[in-house]
């Protein structure tokens, strides 16, 4: 098998030589060019596994080559070498289609990591040299045939090929984490870890240690060396979820880690190179956070190189049937899937879904418990028009690891809750109180509201403890509190 061929474009002979020697030592074939014209003629003669170009060349700018290679040699990744601290150049090159960038002075360990990940892209493309075909909808976990979803899937495939940081925006429950996982799955990093971090869920005092790791003895309780999120995601993708919740001091440290591509464990004297693709997500308006001084502009600029917007479900109501089928099939497991009656489907199509796909999942999960003969009717859906709080006011805690589907509403088995007597007492009270006009769904909501409220009060509104007592994940508890308009704290 022939070694991959790399094209180095630089007019500085010393740097060119250093790059050539390093690449040859990696077992690669190297060609070089000292200007744009020479690079163009090389490109016309050979197929390259990677082009590495300086930004300033005697006959033009490296970014021109980035545009040409991205347009004409779509399977050839191109990376740029920028002057130290030149954020603008790096970001514009990434936006123009560069796969990645390196800052001067070029650190050889980073060069090696970058070349390896560029060559993985080539390997991932098959057959060799063919343009990556758009994945069929069935290959994506993002269900939906609406034009926006088709466009979203196509964008994901395109941007999965580069290292450019992606900022995913969208309302809570619209699928931001799912999209981030899909970017990773379509990238050449797919066989390396995907680590999602909820930035709002980490206590500020622990953040540096959680992100960058720590050395044994760095602080009381640091009994062993530990890796942080960056090391854990090395070679793969790190998703910074709810990135707007990062405190300002941590934003400074994160920016440095992104710029330098190095991290230092708490208590360590030296830094280590990390190769991590960053994806960030937030349901907040990050540009507004910058204006309000809550988010650093330089970090915003670094993270927002490519934007990916997840549409709210109400903008793609045509997808509801497909989504519902997929969710019901998953919830039904191996059994015959529960289905929606035509009127129930119409009712869902007329609902605004403030909690987006997550809300649809919860509505269907609950409705399945009420459905007769495997058919969900409108009444089983218990849709509350205008009753939900806007989701952007709700802070969603981290996803529990592979949580089992939640038991539907308070019909959870009493054994999953340590307070069965409370459940029974509440249920008895609610039924006793029920006016003849209240529907079953309203009565059950009332019981659920009372049980959750009492449990929250018993643990002083500590949601983690309340969720545990109720046998729910924190996310499920949040959703139920939102749906039942239960305040977050004692009022
Ligand atoms: N297009 C989709 N197809 C199938 N399932 C989806 C889709 N979008 C979202 N989901 C499902 O909806 C739920 C919420 O998705 P996800 O956690 O990705 O949303 P999010 O935008 O990251 O939410 P949050 O901002 O609250 O963290 C998940 O169970 C996910 O699998």
From TrEMBL:
Pfam families: AAA_lid_14, HTH_8, Response_reg, Sigma54_activat
Species this protein is from: Noviherbaspirillum album
Chain ranges of the Response regulatory domain: 5-119
Modified residues (4-aspartylphosphate): 54
Name by which UniProt lists this protein: Sigma-54 dependent transcriptional regulator
Keywords of the record: ATP-binding, DNA-binding, Nucleotide-binding, Phosphoprotein, Transcription, Transcription regulation
Start-end of Low complexity biased regions: 405-429
Sigma-54 factor interaction domain location: 142-369
InterPro entries (UniProt xref): AAA+_ATPase, AAA_lid_NorR, CheY-like_superfamily, Homeodomain-like_sf, HTH_Fis, P-loop_NTPase, Sig_transdc_resp-reg_receiver, Sigma_54_int
PANTHER family: RESPONSE REGULATOR PROTEIN PILR, TRANSCRIPTIONAL REGULATORY PROTEIN
Region: Disordered, residue numbers: 389-429
